Amino acid sequence: MPRAPLWRALVALVAVAASLYIALTQSPRLGLDLRGGTQIVLETKDSPTVEADADATRRAVEVLRQRVDALGVSEPSLAQAGDRRIIVELPGVRDPREASEVIGRTAQLTVHPVAAETDRKGPARPAPDGSRTLPDPDRPGGHLELGPTVLTGDGVKNAEAALDQQSMNGWYVTLDFRGKAGGDWADVTGKAACAPQGSPERRVAIVLDGKVISAPGVNADVACGTGITGGTTQITGGFDEDEARDLAALVKGGALPVPVDVVEQRTVGPTLGADAIAASTQAALIGLALTALFITVVYRLLGALATVALALYGLMSYAALVAIGATLTLPGLAGFVLAIGMAVDANVLVFERAREEYLGTRGTGSLPKSLHTGFAKAWSAVIDSNVTTLLAAGLLFTFATGPVKGFGVTLSIGVLVSMVSAFVVSRVLAETAVRRGFVRRRPRLTGLAATGRVRALLARREPRIVQHRRRWLGASALLVAVAVAGIVVRGLDLGVEFTGGRLVEYSTSKQVDADTAREAVADAGFPRAVVQESGAGDISVRTGELSDAEQHRIKETLAEHGGGRVEVERDERIGPSLGDELRQKALIALGIAVAAQLIYLTVRFRWTFASAAVVALVHDVLLVVGLFAWLGKTVDSVFLAAVLTVVGYSVNDTVVVFDRVREARRRDPRAALAATANTAVVRTLPRTVNTGMGALFVLGALAVLGGDSLADFSVALIAGVVLGVLSTVSVAVPVAVLLEHRKPAPPRGPAGGERGRRTPGTSPLEARRQRGTGAVV
């Protein structure tokens, strides 16, 4: 075996072996939307004395970490995002009311001597000397006149909740003091012990966030002037277990350096995550099976070997996700499934080029040589198309939030691994097969000697597609007008991510129709809420500002209206400021995506071709958005992920055609561009159809099996795939031809010299490279 194939075989073997080892020995890290739990995004705010900068946010993270640890949540995650954002993930927590209340409070703990007991009504009244009046927790309607602060929560080293086993007086909280705080506690209790039994001055008030949580009297056995020594004490107050544990968590965490607001909150039930995993797995297996069957029928032996490489691609992608510790989210799972369909593209490109080479020799050529040429000529198109997809995936990771970031990660990994799969694993298998004598004597077995249905149909009469470019452009303009009319007339149904508000999905054990659910939600106090059936036994409620207590009231009202046992399956809460921010980020992401594609394609081709490709992708985006407007479907962050993927996919097909145009113009720079472009479109059409079918099999399986959460995502991508194919013919190529006629590439070098002219579709960088190697352009 020659050195190059042996080298590739070793790389393929190592990659597959390492992937298999990782897959068998490590487990994936599932996001909360797959394993169930609550994610809370907090935003720090300026206080009168402290600015909410990055350092204050970092200190707030450490305080919150202690509180969350004290709550006993399994495998919690806290991370700082930017200067003012904190992301808290609480696996298994389905009711976020208690968690968000505990972790978001400032928890200013102070200790005060009690000066007097009064029956004065009204709010707390601070005094100049630091004393104030607060309600007495032990006397309904009574108040306590408190002296100055003698101790703060900074002096508390530890706090633990415990059950009083002896007196059975319920739960209490034990406080352990640090440093001089123990002496301060002994001093204040020592002074209180000097007061007569039963007098108010014998009490010591413990205040949390401006509320007296306990004001115990000092026991009779405490010596006057000595107080409670030992650096520890107990807080009693008739607590139940949850109240004691929450209080211990707050006290142990200490005071937040700055206030925090909840700007985003997401809760997903574990059953919804399990269903999503099962549905996506089924979609992946069915889509992969259909894709494998299709390419095996089309490319025979090479198709079967590509199927093996595709399965190994899935293994390597999964191992890469696990190895880097990426969090697998629901959109990320969809991205993983989609990447399997897109991975077929590189194999199809290679096999179609190899088939062209072999058929060009009228059956007298060498199978290994044709396959080698196919890999060599497809390399440029594969690189360009994958880079455009990576640009979109990178923007998703940069601008998206929450689970959608996972889509950008999995799509990026999928694209990179597909390169290894196609040009290493698939190539090793294919080249090894075509070198076998049994295969060389039976070239039709490989699929390279077969013309193929699409190619045979086109060979009978090559259609003049580009010749009717003005008609194509007119039809496309009409479709864009219909899409824009939908956006203007119907408007976009923006999700809570972009508008702010709350979306809650309830599952009911008994079927509740939409009208009954609307009546229940109205009875709960929200007559303007948008109530819809989102599946068998599921009711979704979308409204503006909604507190956790109000969300719980809607849940109870649904149960009272015949819903039976009602559970929260999904809960998304977005603050209005974050909604505005996400909406702006979405527009910025789309704008940068268009600009990035324009710059990259200008470098790789020429500005005329790049502009044509960008016009086509804008055309595709407008049609997809217009489709969702006419259908009344929700435009949310998952839809944004689909649109940015459409941007990358739309350019893929255009790049393949432009790559052929560039190649043909190098061979014959005097040929008419329209005729050259028409030939390029016709010759790449088999690849376009075969690649599109591979992606549509997977997306169709996702649309049918993925459930409500992935159905709209799949619909957007199916539309994008179909429109991306059509826009190449109807928009990109016609616009490129028109721009080239108006602004042809300027001559370079000696006037009239053939070596000095730059081929349309060839970038200056490419032209210099060609001139340097003596290429005729």
TrEMBL record:
Domain (SecDF P1 head subdomain): residue spans on this chain: 140-258
InterPro entries associated with the record: SecD (IPR005791), SecD/SecF_arch_bac (IPR022813), SecD/SecF_bac (IPR022645), SecD/SecF_CS (IPR022646), SecD_1st (IPR048631), SecD_SecF_C (IPR048634), SecD_SecF_C_bact (IPR055344), SecDF_P1_head (IPR054384)
UniProt keyword Cell membrane, yes or no: yes
MF-aspect GO terms: protein-transporting ATPase activity
Annotated compartments: Cell membrane
Residue ranges of the TM segments: 283-302, 309-327, 333-351, 378-400, 406-430, 472-492, 586-603, 610-631, 637-658, 689-707, 713-739
Domain Protein translocase subunit SecDF P1: 58-115
Family: Belongs to the SecD/SecF family. SecD subfamily. Belongs to the SecD/SecF family. SecF subfamily.
Subunit: Forms a complex with SecD. Part of the essential Sec protein translocation apparatus which comprises SecA, SecYEG and auxiliary proteins SecDF. Other proteins may also be involved.
Protein name: Multifunctional fusion protein
Species the sequence originates in: Streptomyces silvensis
